[in-house]
Amino acid sequence: MDIKLKKLNKTIINCKKCPRLTNFIKKVSLEKRKQNINEKYWGKPVTGFGNINAKLMIIGLAPAAHGGTRTGRAFTGDKSGDFLFKSLHSVKISNQDFSKNINDGLKLRSTYITNILKCVPPEDKPFNNELIKCSNYFIKEIDLLKNVRVIVALGKVSFDNCLKIYKKKFKINKKFVFKHGRKYILPDNKVLIASYHPSPRNVNTKVITVPMINQLFKSAKKISKI
Ligand code: SF4
After folding, report:
1. Which of 33, 54, 102, 183 is deepest in the core (most CB within 10 A)?
2. CA 120 to centroid of ligand 1, rounded, Å
3. Contact indicator for 56, 221 with CB cutoff of 8 Å
């Protein structure tokens, strides 16, 4: 792994800048959920993963309490990840259609997956000051992953927060509307694609379907030339 990215990830894993989130991670990891009661939870902030030369970046808002916070890898070991990786495999972005744990042999094709916020917030609702503090890590990821051409934002909250960070960094004042499949050119020429979040609620209510997400990733693949 690239030395700078390795250093950044080490800093993230040891970060304790948001006491509310650090305490929540501790609580989740000690209490656990029934089906994982015998497992040792990762119990720390969750970094991004994938290829430093990635042309495609996929972002969520934050790791799941019993997904990434348990397994130590974003979108790994939860229902959103199950839906996401079925799609990534079907469009040949990943080598397998599941993401269960860090030793499951998962490989991504020119892709990096991360979250805007590296710690799970209670009820999936971060405070603004927590997002501001953690945005520095996301900005560093964007700076280090120099070949990224396309960012797919999973869910409105990650889309909005990604734009908030870009607006601050590039001092832009343009209006962006969140709609599945909508594409925007960012000031650094990356293409931002909005996607409905592959959460169980969205999947069960058919807000997002297999053809919808597959089509979106096919398009992301084509634009990023991977
Ligand atoms: S959310 Fe980000 S800034 Fe806050 S403790 Fe976690 S890693 Fe650190």
Report:
1. 54
2. 9
3. yes
Q: How many CB atoms lie within 10 A of CB 31?
A: 10
Tokens of 141: 């990821």
Q: Which atom of ligand 1 is nearest to the CA of 126?
A: 1
Q: What are phi and psi of 122, to 5 degrees?
A: -55, 135
Ligand 1 pocket, CB under 6 A: 12, 15-18, 21-22, 45, 117-119, 130, 133-134
CB neighbour list of residue 43: distance below 8 Å, 6 or more residues apart: 25, 26, 28, 29, 69
The yes-or-no verdict on residue 1 having pLDDT over 90 is no
pLDDT at site 49? 98
Using alpha carbons only, give the angle 86, 90, 94 rounded to the nearest 5 degrees: 75
The candidate with the shortest Cα–Cα distance to 48, out of 56, 34, 59, 39, is 59
Question: What residues contact 24, with CB distance under 8 A and at least 6 apart?
Answer: 119, 120, 121, 122
CA distance 188 to 91: 26
pLDDT tens for 208-221 read: 999 999 999 999 99
> Tens digit of pLDDT for each residue in 130-172?
999 999 999 999 999 999 999 999 999 999 999 999 999 888 8
